[in-house]
Write a structure and sequence with these properties.
Elements lengths: L2 H8 L2 E3 L7 E2 L9 E5 L5 H4 L4 E4 L1 H4 L8 E3 L3 H11 L15 E2 L4 E2 L4 E2 L4 E2 L4 E2 L4 E2 L4 E2 L4 E2 L4 E2 L4 E4 L4 E4 L2 E4 L5 E4 L4 E2 L4 E3 L5 E4 L4 E2 L4 E2 L4 E2 L4 E2 L4 E2 L4 E2 L4 E2 L4 E2 L4 E2 L4 E2 L4 E2 L8 E3 L4 E2 H12 L1 H15 L3
Parallel strand pairs: 2-3, 3-4, 4-5, 6-9, 7-10, 8-11, 9-12, 10-13, 11-14, 12-15, 13-18, 14-19, 15-20, 18-21, 19-22, 20-23, 21-24, 22-25, 23-26, 24-27, 25-28, 26-29, 27-30, 28-31, 29-32, 31-33
Antiparallel strand pairs: 1-5, 16-17, 33-34
């Protein structure tokens, strides 16, 4: 397909030549005949080996005019739409697989798809157009909104990790609540969302949860939240609208992450994060302070050597 024919239905500005596009490839692998996308200036040179790029207007400003490109405010999203035009197929499903186990009291909305060996328990409600991939387990009383996607082997509504000690023994605390997932939520593979002890564990509308995430009992995730792989959220945390939790973030119980906050990868959060803040570090704090401490730590060997030399000159050894 000619690059100009891809540009038209996507509503993108086409600049430069008009090559034939045969496929889509990541920038590290793209070659002749490939369309790729670039979102970081350091990959521009590599992107020049592709037949054409999908790129932001700001990055395109530095390119030679002849190089073929499509201008986009969201290159990663628009290159995926281009792939569809070229015949690439999304991972999706339709209908209910005969091996799925669905309780008689469960309610499935119009157009819900359920994959092989999925389990949907008693009194579960699933909204119209949602897709439940193979191997998903949805426990009793869970409510899922419209147009949600839950990827393979995730477990929704499992018992929370509640324990207490009585008579010298560690005893399990029963969980009587449910999970409620609002509309347009996407949950990756092997995610666990625990039922509430009482009340609800909630995932807000439009949120995106990556693979291998643990969301504990009574957590409330707001709208438009992004949670990256291997995040662990302990019980009764509040994640407000628009928050981003990067990979391997860990939250202790009863923490609130304020609206629009960003928490960097591998950060341990032991206290409330203010709205709009950017935190990082092993035990989370404001990002700029965390980076200042990291720089100081890296200079520690040279500093220690300087102190030893000073002691030696003063005869203090």
């Amino acid at each position: 397909m000619k690059l100009s024919r891809i540009a038209e239905p996507l509503g993108l500005v086409h600049q430069g030549g008009d090559p034939e596009i045969f496929g889509v490839a990541p920038v590290e692998e793209a070659g002749a005949g490939d369309l790729t996308f670039v979102t970081d200036r350091k990959f521009l040179a590599r992107g020049m080996t592709a037949a054409a790029m999908v790129i932001s207007p700001a990055l395109a400003a530095g390119l030679e005019e002849a190089h073929p490109r499509l201008l986009s405010e969201a290159p990663a999203l628009d290159v995926a739409e281009a792939a569809k035009l070229l015949g690439y197929r999304e991972l999706t499903m339709s209908g209910v697989h005969p091996s799925a186990v669905i309780d008689d009291t469960a309610e499935l909305g119009e157009g819900v798809a359920v994959g092989a060996r999925a389990f949907i328990g008693p009194r579960v409600q699933i909204g119209a157009g949602s897709v439940i991939h193979p191997g998903v387990v949805i426990h009793e009383g869970t409510r899922i909104g419209a147009r949600c996607v839950i990827q393979s082997n995730s477990v929704i509504g499992s018992d929370g990790f509640g324990l207490d000690v009585k008579g010298g023994r560690v005893r399990k605390i029963p969980h009587f609540g449910v999970v409620r997932i609002e509309d347009d939520v996407e949950i990756g593979a092997c995610v666990t969302v625990d039922r509430a002890r009482f009340g609800e564990t909630v995932i807000g509308a439009g949120s995106r949860i990556d693979n291998l995430v643990q969301i504990a009992h009574n957590v409330r995730v707001g709208r438009g939240v992004v949670i990256v792989a291997q995040v662990g959220i302990a019980g009764s945390c509040r994640i407000e609208d628009g928050v981003v939790l990067a990979g391997q973030v860990g939250l202790v119980p009863h923490v609130t992450v304020g609206k629009g906050a960003r928490v960097g990868a591998s950060t341990g959060v032991a206290g409330d994060v203010p709205p709009g803040a950017v935190w990082s570090g092993w035990w989370g704090q404001e990002h700029r302070r965390s980076m200042t401490e990291l720089v100081a730590l890296r200079k520690l060997p040279e500093f220690m050597k300087m102190v030893k030399d000073m002691f030696k000159k003063q005869g203090w050894e």
